[in-house]
Design goal:
Oligomer: single chain
Number of domains: 2
Largest sheet: 6 strands, parallel
Number of helices: 8
Radius of gyration: 19 Å
CATH architecture of the largest domain: 3-Layer(aba) Sandwich
Structural class: alpha/beta
CATH superfamily of the largest domain: NAD(P)-binding Rossmann-like Domain
Amino acid sequence: MKKVCIVGVSGKLGQYMVQHALDRGYEVVGVCRERSVGKLDALKGRITVMPGLTNDREVIKKAVAGCDGVLTVLVPWGVHQYSSGTAQAVLDHARPGARLIFSCGWHITKDGLDEYPPSLRREEKLARLLGRLTRIVDIDDQVDACRRVFASDTRWTVVRGSALEEGESQGLPLWSRHVGDPVLVSNITCRVDYALFMVEALENDELIHEAPAIVGGKTPSAIISEHGARASMAGEVSGPSFRDLRPIRLATCPAYRTAIK
């Protein structure tokens, strides 16, 4: 991996991905709307920026030329097939064999086996309703974008992010194939670590054709999951349980306190 393109480079996630990519010695090309180029002033001379809409096929064609990997932020803006147009342009114009990493939320499902909590279902319904009324976002178009990726024979990975927060890095997030799995209960990831997972996925062939749902590596559910795995390997009969985990006061649950000792 020598050269990567970041589509949606001016946003917070995109800028974090730039830093992780530069730390690895990658040459970076970024795509963002012309009005957002100024957000990248601190990176002048370190990356190549191509202004334009990310669903502009000609812009994407030029940006991904010669790139070994493409990191794409699938943003459901507007009602003009922004996400699906972006995804299709990347799928069509990335070089054969390139690693293609896409970002989206937990609401995307690859195989229909995810089990969503009622709160997440309510949030998705509200987002769809507000999107139709304001014409600012289009969740259905992001769903369509991911369906196109899933149907592709390219070397893709779709990274499904939990709720995000700013803060110090907790290291590489943990992941699972399905929302509803115990390790994901905490439903929070530092944005800088979401970006880290995206960049790390470029050279992780085990994630090809996977849609990992991620969670912060030091969240209560992640810690309990790792503690339970270690206990199982050591032949322990009992250990921390997920039964006491709740959305509120996670850090005070007995299982969490046991796991971090």
